[in-house]
């Protein structure tokens, strides 16, 4: 039986992230100012055709799958990449009072955009903050580390945008923010998971130390889809 995380984008768009979706039948994508992800229930010719009709204009979208996808010839595959999909299997972390963790809101978006553009943890757009539950650490009134929640294929919630300014690495900020996200997700009765590039060995070690275990390999595709 398929696991809900075999198709995390589609299952998020029909459950916990539905309020951010643009949908038609078995095809959905996130609002373009929130995230570039598209989810298809079947990943077949029929769903590809529906997605081409659903999108407002030609553009770049990202799809995930545990297996290779055979795309229409008219689609341009700009990039493909391998990821580890990891699920948290530890206890609820204790509240870490050593770091002052701040809830981020719309007023912080310019700094969040600047930090994610510098560190490139994954797509972060003007309204990505609408996924909610972003937290950060500040030094001298400047945002130097952050983490948040992204796709929500119930009962799982993805931790994303975990990043630290290069001048502030090695201070435990990422671990503190990661544990805070885990704690919040589990206290709400959900299960934390995440995606990480398969060759990002330093991040994988951080996640393993935090209690994440590898669930499966995933493939990501960055596609230029015609209208």
UniProtKB/TrEMBL annotation:
Residues 99-227 form the N-acetyltransferase domain. Keywords: Transferase. InterPro entries: Acyl_CoA_acyltransferase, GCN5-like_dom, GNAT_dom. CDD domains: NAT_SF. PROSITE patterns: GNAT. It holds the Pfam family FR47. Coiled coil: none annotated. One of its GO terms (molecular function) is acyltransferase activity, transferring groups other than amino-acyl groups. This is GNAT family N-acetyltransferase.
């Amino acid at each position: 039986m398929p696991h809900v995380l075999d198709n995390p984008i589609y299952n998020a768009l029909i459950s916990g992230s539905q309020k951010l979706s643009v949908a038609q039948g078995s095809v959905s994508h996130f609002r373009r100012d929130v995230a570039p992800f598209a989810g298809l229930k079947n990943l077949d010719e029929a769903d590809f055709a529906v997605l081409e009709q659903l999108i407002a204009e030609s553009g770049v979208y990202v799809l995930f799958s545990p297996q290779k996808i055979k795309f229409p010839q008219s689609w341009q595959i700009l990039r493909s990449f391998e990821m580890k999909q990891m699920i948290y299997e530890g206890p609820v972390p204790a509240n870490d009072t050593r770091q002052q963790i701040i809830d981020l809101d719309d007023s912080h978006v310019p700094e969040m955009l600047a930090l994610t553009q510098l560190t490139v943890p994954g797509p972060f757009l003007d309204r990505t903050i609408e996924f909610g539950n972003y937290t950060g650490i500040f030094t001298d009134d400047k945002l130097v580390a952050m983490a948040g929640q992204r796709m929500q294929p119930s009962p799982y919630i993805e931790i994303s945008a975990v990043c630290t300014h290069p001048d502030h690495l090695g201070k435990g900020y990422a671990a503190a923010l990661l544990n805070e996200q885990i704690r919040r997700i589990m206290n709400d009765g959900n299960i934390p998971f995440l995606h990480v590039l398969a060759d990002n060995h330093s991040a994988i070690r951080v996640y393993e130390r935090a209690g994440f275990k590898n669930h499966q390999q995933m493939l990501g595709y960055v596609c230029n889809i015609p209208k």
